[in-house]
Amino acid sequence: MSVAFYPGCSLHGTGNDYAQSAHAVCQRLGLDLTELEGWTCCGSTPAHNTSALLSVALSAQNLRLASDQQRDSLVVACAACFNRLRSARHEMAHDEVLRGRVEHVLEAPAPLDVRVDHLLELLLDTYGLDALAARVRRPLTGLKVACYYGCLLVRPPEVMAFDDAEHPTSMDRVLAACGAETVDWPGKTECCGANLSLSRSDIVVSLVDRLLDQAKRAGADVVAVACPLCQANLDVRQTDVTAQTGHRYDLPAVYFTQLVGLALGAGADELGLDKSFVDSRPTLAGWLS
Amino acid sequence: MSTETLLTPSAPDTATWKPRLVAFVCNWCTYTGADLAGTSRTEYPANVRIVRLPCSGRIDPHFIIRAFEQGADGVLVSGCHPGDCHYTAGNYHARRKFMVLHALAEFLGIEPERLQFSWVSAAEGRKWADVVSDVVAGLLRVGPVQPTWGGAGELPVRSLSEPPRPVPEPLDVVGELRATAQRWLSDCRVDVFVGYGQGSLPGRLRPAFITSPDEVDQLVWNEHAVNNLATYLTRGLVKRHGRVGLLVKSCDARAVVGLLQERQIEREQVTLLGVPCIGVEVDGALAPKCHTCDSAWPALVDEVLSAEVPLTPVDGEGLAAEIAWVEKMSPAQRRAWWQAQFDRCLRCYACRAVCPLCYCSQCIADQSRPQWVSKSSDGRGNLAWNLVRAFHLAGRCVGCGECTRVCPSNIRLDLLNAKLAQVVRDEFGYVAGGDPDLPPPLTTYLLEDHEEFIR
Amino acid sequence: MARIGVFICHCGENIARNVDVDRVAEAAAQIPGVAHAESYRYMCSDPGQRKIREAIVAQGLTGIVVAACSPHMHENTFQNAVEGAGLNRYLCEMANLREHCSWVHSDREEATSKALELIAIMVEKVKRNQPLAPIRVPMTKRALVIGGGIAGIQAALDIANAGRDVVLVEREPSIGGHMAQLSETFPTLDCSQCIMTPRMVEVKNHPRIQLYTYAEVEAVDGYVGNFTVTIRRRARSVDESKCTGCGACTQRCPQKKIASEFDAGMGQRPAIFIPFAQAVPNLPVIDRTRCTMFLKGKCGLCAKACPAGCIDYEQTDTLVTEEVGAIVMATGFDVQPPTLYPEYGSDPDIINGLQFERLLSASGPTAGEPRRPSNGEVPRSVVFVACAGSRDPARGVPYCSSICCMYTAKHALLYKHKVHDGQAYVFYMDIRAAGKNYDAFVHRVIAEEGAQYLRGRVSRIYRDGDQLVVRGADTLSGTALTIRADLVVLATAVTPRPGSDALAQKLSVPYDAFGFASEAHPKLRPVETNTAGVFLAGTCQAPRDIPDTVAQAGGCAAKVLALFSADQLEREPVVSRVNEATCVACFDCERVCPFHAPEHRELRNRAGDLLRVVSHINEGVCAGCGLCVVTCRSHSIDLAGFSDEQTFAEIGALAPF
Amino acid sequence: MSPTTYLADSAQAVLTAILAAGQRVVAPVEQAGLLAFAHVEQAEQAQLIGQTRASAKELAFPRTQRLFGYRFGNPGVELLPGEEPPAPTVLFGVRPCDAAGLAILDGVFGAEPADAPYLARRARITVVGLSCDQPQAHCACTAVGLSPTATDGSDLLLTPLAEGVLVEVLTARGAALVDLLGEALRPGAADKAEVTARAEAAMAPRALPAGLADGLAAAFGEAAWADAAARCLGCGTCAFVCPTCHCFDVVDESNLRGGQRLRVWDACQFGLFTLHASGHNPRADQAARYRQRALHKFSYYPRAHGRPMCVGCGRCVNACPAGMDIFEVAATAAAGQG
Amino acid sequence: MRTETYEPHLMTVAQVRDETADVRTLRLTFTDPALADSFAYRAGQFAFYSAFGEGESVFCIASSPTETGYVECSFKLTGKVTSALRRLSEGDVMGFRGPYGNSFPIDEMVGHNLVFIGGGIGMAPVRSILVNCLDRRSEFGDITILNGARSAADLVYRDQTDAWTARSDVRCVKTVDPGGDSEGWDGEVGLIPHVLERLAPTPHNTKVVLCGPPIMIKFSLISLEKMGFSGEQVITTLENRMKCGVGKCGRCNIGGAYVCCDGPVFTAAQIAALPQEF
Questions:
Q1: Has residue E205 been placed in a domain?
Q2: What is the count of residue pairs from C and D with beta carbons less than 8 Å apart?
Q3: B67-79 average pLDDT score
Q4: With contact defined as beta carbons under 8 Å apart, do C638 and C577 qualify?
Q5: Can you tell me the distance from the alpha carbon of D67 to that of D85, in angstroms, rounded to the nearest whole number?
Q6: pLDDT of amino acid E14
Q7: Best exposed site among B246, C117, C421, E187 by fewest CB in 10 Å?
């Protein structure tokens, strides 16, 4: 199987620690994570708020590229891009009229031959947990992780078909394979406020407050995420939470890839652990040596 | 020299042609589903004619062949969804038969549009209408059946199979063979020993029936020992003589397995003498079946002749290569290729006579109520006969290749048989002639049998 | 040629609107073999049927084609009419001009020519029809009822009270089923055990009922009127003939902390136990999987305690065979465990409705006082969640479990009655209260008892300290809710009893994707199955409440009794027959037949020497599917009514499109 | 009176001339690895070496032949004509054994009451025989009184010489064909005895014992037939490749509209061949059926017509799936009697 | 000689009579009146009867040449064609081709005493020659008729048998196999050879016409021989499967004799000389 990596805008920007750690992990596992040549925006929020066709067509264009480059699958790390790409594929497969319009725009057949996989799925299904566990150098034994999936990975379930939409365990299983102890907590798929971060930061603060509270109560040392925006909200907004509510958590929000990378033996710099507001390095010190 | 026939529909006038679709449906689900389409006033094309049968398990592949003979452009077969069968399992059994039929039709170059399968429940009036519309649309796409096949241009008559291989020196087992036969007959372990004797033409062997220990010197063994002697087990041998001693190659032994499985012989009636075989000769070269044979040693035998068997690697693709070659043709070419084959059929039934698994006391080709297979040795009758023969051997043929060896018209029956054996192996995980205690694959089913070909 | 009569129905305007019936009649008269063709406004009316009868007599017709509606609608009608004129009823066929033609094709020209062809097809078929006579088979007028819950008990009593013997088989050590576990029943709030126990006793004492408890149906052979049933009586390890049910043994048992099945895990029992106080029979049974004697080979305390000496550790399962003529399947239901949704977590204080019944029952582990399993305290706040698994095609089951709305309302009410200051919340999707007085009951619970009904789903439940946090939505107010609760009761989905699918296979009864046994017709034959002589009562067929179950069980009894009212059984003669002359005895027919109809028949000459063994189809068992016919390579089997020759003739008529 | 013999360059040249004269020609061609009689349009298509797998009888006695048709009315039945015989045809390159086979069939079908459908086809066939210079291992024409250059049944017979080919004109139909060929043929004569002798010498020695017809008749009741026929599997190959076998079945094929009555080949080795509707079968086992075949060819027919109903082509021996050899069986059976 | 050897004449079914549950007699008239006038046959000859769409069957002509204007056949339900023939009703059209074969040597029978023995459907050819002889009654000596069947229900031509019994110039007996009699049976009970021995016809100057199933023929011949009849005095018919009627299709031969051309009528002496394969 031949895959191409779709980074999306975030991973080339604010979330480049996600990209960095994803590459570090894949390199250590021997997985080829070559970027899709000539990728463009997935359509993301701006497009699908303006034109349904545009939002699908942008994703379709990337799938088209993958198809042209003889890729079987497009691997995505960003939850939002993943959501867009998979939705677009789903819509084209189920709406003949839309497919026709997209084909008209693309001037090519709809690229339904390319799958869209999340990085987690790549590790779980393609690589396999047993194989992953076998590569672990520094088991994360004793590290309590609250896996946070957010909304976009799993919803809407009939489109995303990713894990159990209400009670996903993919990330838990991946991190458990790395030796971490994942905690059962109620916040897994709650909303972080997403891009209301800019327009209604009060909402984001209250949501993040609750998430951090729940994670803390469940005994988590870190929160693991799979989305650049989630990471940003959970990380950056902690100071606002403290300011507005007086609650202080100091709970690092890290990408799951950073934890996996850690277990595989990668160093803090290689994983971009220095990039977050709430420094995770003290918490993770035991595994960083 | 085919006969013009009044019954073959004349070439359709393409201007006025409307597809003729015959639907064989079960009474409980699809027929009722079609009723529901009626009560819901769901419009669909008028090209379909329904033949009602109790169950999809009652839909005989011969009905489908017959419908095409009678000028249908397409056939739709429809029953209850898995699990819904009024008779609990009729559709599961039917599904296996349809799977084989579907593969056979495709292999013969019948366009997939012409033979369609669906599950339509009593509640799916809408689906019935959709399926009919869709199938009719498909027929409009492929157009009328051409009354005489062809139009595919020049076709090679010989396939591009693997190059002929030389026949290895036969193993020297004659002495031990004669001694064993003599011992069995002297000890009254068997009443007749069936092996090979010298034929009347140079370089030919033929079956020999030895009833006295004094006659064992008639027995010989070499690369010309082609006949599958297991065939004689169901041809009155036991009745005439009693206990039979039979010389079997590994392919022959597989046929014995089939006969045991289908309860045509009792194990204790037959004493099997296995002969290690490294290949027999057909048409001056190693028989195609031997290219892929992976065992010189027959299974199931009571005794086996000793010989040092040279290692012969199984590296050939044998018939698989030729099947792939046929499958590479376009459907129209395939159809024309097979048409040319079947046109040559004389209906001598030598294929049936030599087949160890064709043991019916009255073959359906010889039955007249109804006339399953047209007696006429023209396109229709020959097509039906060759399809029926192949279908009846699906999951049963052990690949001894005798039918093809004896065909006076060189029809590639072995390709049909081998193709269906492939289907049965790939779809049902079954290889004929292995375990006598397994049920034949078309008499059983699995809930999870594939049904991608069914709408 | 044959003399076929063709009768074309206008069906008022239903057919005549899109089919030119006059032209069809005219053209049908030209079909070879048709001696008479006419059309009429309503063929199924009395005058229409009279036309058929008169034509048969006047024209000497040998076969009839009625071109009208679906045979599923009126085949019987016209077969009767034909029979009335002295012609065998199986010489009548129907061409479906309405459902399959006039109603689905609006082009009058096309519909008319199709109509004519549909008629031609049936004319060709009916020419080959053979007169058939109904098949008569003898009958054992004794019924088997499988399952001793309310459905089985009701069916057994109804049949036995009508004077027929009944064999009742129950898998558990006692009859009573789920109804015996319930506290009070909606909407009348009668005490479930008070109305159930007398029936159980009646069963035990009924002279016509043979009761086997702690027993299972092992095998079913035969066919309607003539079933042979093998029943496995599991070893109780207690000699039933001597035991008085004093209970001394159960008190001495050292194992006391086994979760009680009867109490749905809310209470405990010893390894030798009587399931509950009112059990019928009131006999102990040793749970060999938990008994120290069986696990470690020593103990024997119960044997020492037993004054009658009836503990028998060596007892083995026994097989008994019963001959019966009809079978009622009443295997009942289960409810899903309260752990279906992982986001609800698994917490001792999250229980299902059946467990709550036991907490509410006066005979239950808390003597009817609702208490939290985690700490035994009385819950001050209880959240009830309806549709916890039901009507959720994605993660649960798609169907409605039918009883949850009502029992949840009852639970809320009973809880409020017992904990006056407690708060009951009910999350629901919508309220289905279609039974008699049901809606009023729910209204009473909401309006008078103060249960707080919240229309919405619960998204998550998690423990916070001593309490559970229930998060959900109230879709009427559009708000997200967070409720702190002491106890959560999930109305989990009703599912068939485990093992009922295996039993259905033994009985050759189809079942749906969820394991509910399938009735023969959803409207008109709701208690029959497609296997003649096997009937369905209660929740093994679909979720339903007690009154419906009792009514259906009564219906089963009526069907059984009607079956038994004749001395011989008449069956449709659409059965397979073997041509013994050409049968080669491969017995592939035997391998494929879902009903075990093919038998081995020995052919002997006059001297009695065995010539051959051939297949023989038992007409009493054959359901007429025709699977054997298609499987038979030598075509030595044919199916009456749908013979190969008939079908070939139909196909032959397809040509002149 | 035209000459009775001509010379030509080669058989191929004669064929070229026949085609050039606008005649429809059926000749041996290679199909799917075997020789078969088929329509040819160019002389090069014809393969004039060896023996066809099936005999030449099919053109006159096709595998399937419509005797007549009918259309159903209501009431009544309308009869429709039988097959239109094919256009006049030159059957070219027929070996002497096959040509002799046609002569035997002519006798059978021509005997009163004559068989109209056969005669209608046969009347349109001109047989151009081709002497055999390379006999096969299974050839046995000399055993039945024929030779590799026999003229029986041919209208013209071509015999390849060391150089060129001898053309014998044997019938008026042959002469009529010669008239169309112009300069391809030169009047002339040659002795074919040497050709005959060379071909006969190349044949495996096979002979039938004297008095075979009577010997076989006397052996009718012998139990040895069961042993002799033990190998026979009861297929129709021998009959269907035989130039003289002429058994047939008559069947109807029909649908709602009408149908046709067909004549199709049948074979005496099939168990159903003589089966009565009552279930009784006069030839109940393969031994009886094989005996019928042997006796029909070598006893019943010779006693009535003075020659065996066999032309010695050996096809049945060659094609038999089980290695049956009718010459061997017949000779053994007759000898066993003596 | 017809040019189309195998093409049948079209006939109209003029009458349908059920002889037994499975034996039916059809009376056929020519649709072409010219043919009706020219058509001639002799007792003992047979013909092919077509059910169009299903095929042809062979039966003897059961009517007598003296019964003009129609031909009759009687047949037993055995298979595809006979079932199709049974579907015919009066006025329907079927096919007929014939007559074929030799015939009973009526001229040689003149002046002799005659014994007619028919078993089951074998009574059909007997009836043809019998009626022929009865219509020329004065040319023959004593006439004895024995019509036998397995059971009373299987006895064919029952009304005619009763009419022959009523005649004073013939001796007519009907019999059924032991156990085959039913209530109201007024004939003999016994196997045909036994009843024949009880009737004890004289062999002197007598010809016997004997038709029926092979087993009955076999034992009747033994009885006749015992009574002093020679093979030349006994005339019977053979049946074999046939498809053409004209000696081509190759299946009806017994040794060198073709039943369709050399038969179907043979004397017992002729049959004894044939290979025993029938």
A1: yes
A2: 27
A3: 92
A4: yes
A5: 11
A6: 96
A7: C421
Letter string b/e over residues B28-56, b meaning 16 or more CB atoms within 10 A of that residue's CB: bbbbbbbbbbbeeebebbbbbbbbbbbbb
The domain that holds E67 is classified in CATH as 2.40.30.10
The interface pTM score, or ipTM, of the predicted complex is 0.79
Quote the domain boundaries for residue C286.
248-305
Preferred mutation among D278, D281, D291, D298 to probe E, highest tally of E CBs within 10 A:
D278
Q: Does E92 touch chain C (CB under 8 A)?
A: yes
Residue ending a domain, choose from E37, E66, E100: E100
Interchain pair D282, E250: CB under 8 A: no
Pairing verdict, β E23-30 and E9-18? antiparallel
Cβ(E97)–Cβ(E7) under 8 Å? yes
Angle at alpha carbon of residue D94, lines to D89 and D96, rounded to 5°:
135
Q: Check if C214 contacts A (Cβ < 8 Å).
A: no
Cβ within 8 Å, pair D263-E6 = yes
Task: Extract the tokens encoding B29.
Answer: 């689900």
Q: Are B312 and B170 in contact (CB under 8 A)?
A: no
Is E277 within 8 Å of D282 when comparing Cβ atoms? yes
User: Are residues C341 and C436 both part of a single domain?
Assistant: yes
pLDDT given at position C414? 96
Number of separate domains in chain C: 5
E56: which chain B residues are within 8 Å (Cβ-Cβ)?
none
Q: Is residue E96 part of a domain?
A: yes
- Regarding whether C227 and C98 lie in a shared domain, the answer is no
For the stretch C135-189, pLDDT in tens is 888 899 999 999 999 999 999 999 999 999 999 999 999 999 999 999 999 999 9
Range of the domain at E92: 9-100
Selected residue with higher pLDDT from D13 and B123 = D13
Q: Which residues of E touch B369 (CB under 8 A)?
A: 79-80, 83
Residue E115: strand pairing partners = E144, E208
Contact flag C341-A166 (C-beta cutoff 8 Å): yes
Residues E135 and E214 in one domain: yes
Q: Where are the domains of chain D?
A: 5-202, 212-337
Contacts of E79 in chain D (CB under 8 A): 277
Q: Do E246 and D115 touch (CB under 8 A)?
A: yes
User: Of C487-491, C612-616, D253-257, E204-208, which gets the smallest average pLDDT?
Assistant: D253-257
Same domain, C33 and C115: yes
Which of the residues D30, D208, D253 would you substitute to probe the B interface, choosing the one with the greatest number of B C-beta atoms within 10 Å?
D253
What band does D2 get if pLDDT is binned at 50, 70 and 90?
A: low
Q: Is C265 left (phi over 0), alpha (psi -120 to 50) or beta?
A: left
Does E275 map to a domain? Answer: no
Strand partners, B360: none
Query: Would you state the pLDDT for residue B4?
Result: 38
- Pick D255's closest partner by Cβ from C1, C30, C655: C655
pLDDT of residue C655: 63
Count how many domains chain E has. 2
Q: Which string of DSSP letters, residue by residue, matches B138-197? A: HHHHH-PPPSS---S----SS---PPP-PPPPPP--HHHHHHHHHHHHHTTS-SEEEEEE
Q: Are both E33 and E110 inside the same structural domain? A: no
pLDDT at B155 > cutoff 70: no
What pLDDT digit, counting tens, does each position of E126-184 carry? 999 999 999 999 999 999 999 999 999 999 999 999 999 999 999 999 999 998 888 88
Whether the pLDDT of residue B5 is over 80: the answer is no
Boundary-marking domain end, from E100, E125, E149: E100
pLDDT in tens, C292-339: 999 998 899 999 999 999 999 999 999 999 999 999 999 999 999 999
E152 belongs to a structural domain = yes
Return the closest-CA partner of residue E124 out of E71, E185, E70, E51: E71
Q: Which CATH architecture has domain B21-142?
A: 3-Layer(aba) Sandwich (3.40)
Verify that C105 and C190 share a domain, yes or no: no
One domain for residues C339 and C402: yes
**Average pLDDT, stretch D133-161?**
93
Give the residue from chain C lying closest to B359, CA to CA.
C584
Looking at residue E103, what is its pLDDT? 96
Q: C133-147: per-residue pLDDT in tens?
A: 998 888 999 999 999
